[in-house]
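Key result, reporting period 2: structure in, sequence out.
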């Protein structure tokens, strides 16, 4: 039997009509010998609302809680009314929604009374987004005559450690349990709907996989079931050669390797949760990103490395905004082992993630790119830790910059790509402030002034004729 895992995000299940559309997409692709497991996010905006109310509850604002849960119930009941026509099916779903909202209210009030919101309690609260959406999507399938059950991530057997808020997956147990729970259902012709984003510890305590975690749920399920494909349904046609808001002729990339797609998602294409590709890559399960608005389009297929073709060369160019550059310099750094280590250690202790690094061979300075909102903290920490030492003279920063990343596995070992990139940029009279290339050669990243970011992306898109791919 063929197996496909599908994931629908919050914007695809924002209201009742959209959920009916989702149910159609599932049934259109379901056949006797192709079972479909679906995983869904919370209705659009709900996770953020839950985070908000949990914080307010902690600050003792208990009066708001019932109003909030009533409104949340109303919204879900309205959505269910549109999504599920059959009276009995709808009433069953309504019953589940009411019970779950009741539990949520008790948890929130508990937080309000003890004025304490641990990461564990937070996970308990935010899990309700998906615990409320999944029953509706499952009900909508029942409504169309498809046998369907809804299960939480914990019920389906996704097991994690207890790092609440960003839990680490225990793949071996997960795989075993997910197969045991889902395979019989598929064999009986069921089309199960699993809550995205949430999982459980080995003791059954609710955890979450980090924001945007439903993508990750999809590939966890896909890898566990050794599915034929995982389909991430979204509102764009797939991964693109550039942001279409910057380059109007940007194209959907039809095929990419896991490695390339990982680079692309790390460098800002908002399409996916950063860890989402891991389980699929390990098991070699193809992942397809496709649009709910355009189901005839096959989207982007992410698969295992094939032979790298140089003619594919550059595949995409992206812009990373809201970053800043810090340069640490001083003649005393030359030939002084440990300077770079010290810089990284200081930032690492402050939990400041470094996006890009470059050091000239003269060793008299090191430049780093970090997220802009961390700049002040980073500079302060570096100054306090380093300036007293004689080998470092100054720490300077620039916050009006952006990173342009040029990606593609075909660049590997192909001479001349860098020169084409930088000639194209030079032709626009744009100054390049800092350059880095990972030795994987999958990407070339560089820093330009923020005001030049969009023009740089357009120049490179044009130079490599990405609109003709
Ligand atoms: N609902 C969760 C979030 O908003 C998970 C997801 O949407 O994938 O982060
Ligand atoms: Mg979401």
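The corresponding designed sequence is given below.
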């Amino acid at each position: 039997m063929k197996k496909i895992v599908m994931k629908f995000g919050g914007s695809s299940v924002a209201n009742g009509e959209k959920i009916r559309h989702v149910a159609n997409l599932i049934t259109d692709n379901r056949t006797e010998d192709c079972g479909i497991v679906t995983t869904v996010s919370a209705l659009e905006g709900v996770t953020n609302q839950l985070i908000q109310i949990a914080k307010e509850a902690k600050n003792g604002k208990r009066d708001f809680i019932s109003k909030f849960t009533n409104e949340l119930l109303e919204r879900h009941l309205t959505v269910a009314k549109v999504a599920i026509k059959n009276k009995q099916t709808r009433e069953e779903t309504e019953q589940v929604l009411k019970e779950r909202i009741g539990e949520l209210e008790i948890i929130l009030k508990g937080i309000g009374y003890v004025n304490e919101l641990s990461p564990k309690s937070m996970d308990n609260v935010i899990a309700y987004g998906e615990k409320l959406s999944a029953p509706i999507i499952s009900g909508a399938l029942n409504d169309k005559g498809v046998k369907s059950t809804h299960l939480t991530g914990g019920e389906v057997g996704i097991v994690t450690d207890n790092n609440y808020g960003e839990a680490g997956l225990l793949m071996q147990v997960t795989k075993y349990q997910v197969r045991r729970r889902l395979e019989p259902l598929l064999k009986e012709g069921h089309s199960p709907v699993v809550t995205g984003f949430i999982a459980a510890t080995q003791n059954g305590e609710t955890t979450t996989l980090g924001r945007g975690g439903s993508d990750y749920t999809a590939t966890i399920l896909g890898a566990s079931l050794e599915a034929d494909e995982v389909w991430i349904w979204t509102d764009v046609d797939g991964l693109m050669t550039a942001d279409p808001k910057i380059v109007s002729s940007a194209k959907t990339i039809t095929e990419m390797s896991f490695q390339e797609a990982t680079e692309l998602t790390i460098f800002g294409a908002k399409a996916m949760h950063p860890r989402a590709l891991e389980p699929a890559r390990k098991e070699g399960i193809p992942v397809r990103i496709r649009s709910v608005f355009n189901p005839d389009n096959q989207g982007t297929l992410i698969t295992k490395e094939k032979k790298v073709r140089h003619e594919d060369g550059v595949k995409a160019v992206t812009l990373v905004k809201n970053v800043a550059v810090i340069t640490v310099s001083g003649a005393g750094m030359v030939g002084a082992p440990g300077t770079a280590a010290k810089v990284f250690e200081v930032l690492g202790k402050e939990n400041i993630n470094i996006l890009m690094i470059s050091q000239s061979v003269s060793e008299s300075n090191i430049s780093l790119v970090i997220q802009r909102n961390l700049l002040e903290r980073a500079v302060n920490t570096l100054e306090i830790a380093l300036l007293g030492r004689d080998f470092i003279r100054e720490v300077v920063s620039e916050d009006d910059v952006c990173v342009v990343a040029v990606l593609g596995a075909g660049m590997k070992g192909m001479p001349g790509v860098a020169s084409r990139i930088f000639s194209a940029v030079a032709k626009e009279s744009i100054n390049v402030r800092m350059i880095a290339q990972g030795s994987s050669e999958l990407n070339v990243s560089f820093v330009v002034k923020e005001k030049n970011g969009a023009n740089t992306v357009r120049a490179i898109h044009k130079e490599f004729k990405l609109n003709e791919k």
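The CA atoms of residues 288 and 301 lie 4 Å apart. The pocket of aspartic acid (ligand 1) is lined by residues 9-10, 41-42, 47, 129, 196-197, 211-214 (CB under 6 Å). This case is discussed further under Risks and Mitigation.
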